[in-house]
Please model this.
Amino acid sequence: MSGGRSAEPGPEGRAVPFYCPYCGDEELTPEAEPVGAWKCQACRRVFTVRLAGLALTEEDEEP
Ligand SMILES: [Zn+2]
Model:
C-alpha cells in the first residue's frame, strides 16, 4: 500500500533506516511503541535506530 508517504522527520529526530538491518527489506513503517521504532513488513521485526556518536579523530578529543 502506498498512501501518503511523508518525508517529515520525526518529532524526536527519528533516524530513518532505508533497509531492515536483519533481512534487508525496504518495507519499513514507523511504530508508535517503543518511541522511534520501525517495523519491517517482511520479517516483522521491530527495531530502533540509535545514534551512538560521531567518529571524530582521537586528536580532536585530546585535552
Ligand atoms: Zn526485516
About this structure: The first strand starts at residue 28 and ends at 31. The chain has a mean pLDDT of 81.
